[in-house]
Amino acid sequence: MSELVEYIVVSLILISIGVYGIVVKRNAIRMIFSIEIIANAANLNLIAFSRSINDAQGQVFVLFSIAIAAAEVAVGLGIIIIAYRLYKEIDVEEFKSMRG
To answer: Which residues have CB under 8 Å from 87's CB, separation 6+?
Structure first.
C-alpha cells in the first residue's frame, strides 16, 4: 500500500473516533478532546499531502492550526471550569436547560 494511502486511512480512523466522541458522549471535556482528535486528523492529512507533493506550505498551515487549536482548548477549558463552578455539572445537555 502506498504511504499516502496509509496516512489517509489513519486520518479516517481518527476522524471516525472524533465524530463518535462528539455524537455519543455529552461530557464537555470529552467533546473538546473529540474536536482535537478531528483537528489532528486534518493536520495529518495536510502533512501527508504536503510531503507527497514536496511542498512545505501544508506544514506551515499545520503549525498555524496547532496554535489555533491550543488557544481554542484554553478558552474552552476556561468556560468549562466557570460553568462547573456555577452549576457543579459539565454535561452539555444540562447546559441547554440552564438558559434564561
So the answer is: 94, 95, 98
pTM of the model: 0.82
* Residue recorded with cell 488557544: 71
φ and ψ of 66, to 5 deg: -65, -40
Report the amino acid identity of residue 91: D
Note the helical H segments in 1-100.
3-24, 28-52, 57-87, 92-97
Q: Which pLDDT tens digit goes with each residue over 48-97?
A: 999 888 888 888 889 999 999 999 999 988 988 888 888 777 777 666 66
Percent helix / strand / coil, the chain, rounded to 5: 85, 0, 15
